[in-house]
Amino acid sequence: MTRLVLRVLGLIVGAWTTSAASADVNYGSQAPYTVYQPLNAYSWAGPYLGGNVGYTWGSVDNNPTKPSGFAGGVQVGYNFQNGPWVFGIEGDIQATAADDTFAPWKFSNPWFGTVRGRAGYAFNNVLFYATGGLAFGELRGETFGLSESHTNAGWTVGGGAEMGFAPNWSAKIEYLYVDIANSNFVVTGAPNGYAFSLIRAGVNYHF
Question: What's the predicted TM-score (pTM) here?
Answer without folding.
Answer: 0.80
